Amino acid sequence: MKNVLILGTGCRKCAHLQAQAEQAVKNLGIQAEIQKVEDITKITEYGVFMTPALVVDGQVKTQGRIPTVAEIEKFVG
User: Fold this and answer.
1) Which of these is catalytic: 3, 11, 19, 35?
2) pLDDT score of 10
3) Check whether domain 2-76 has CATH 3.40.30.10, yes or no
4) Is 14 considered catalytic here?
């Protein structure tokens, strides 16, 4: 099972990234745990200083932008 984290302070962009990630997982038909991380201390532990950020299995894939569903599918597939 993939572990997908959405790092951000709860802004509209963060919610959009979460929706994109959920759609990508659904499209792929895989099992993934998608979690939001809003604690700024935990966010910076990943070396992220621009949100929203997408982390897949502990690796930061994007930060400061919202990737497309197709991009997220590549990251989690």
Assistant:
1) 11
2) 87
3) yes
4) yes
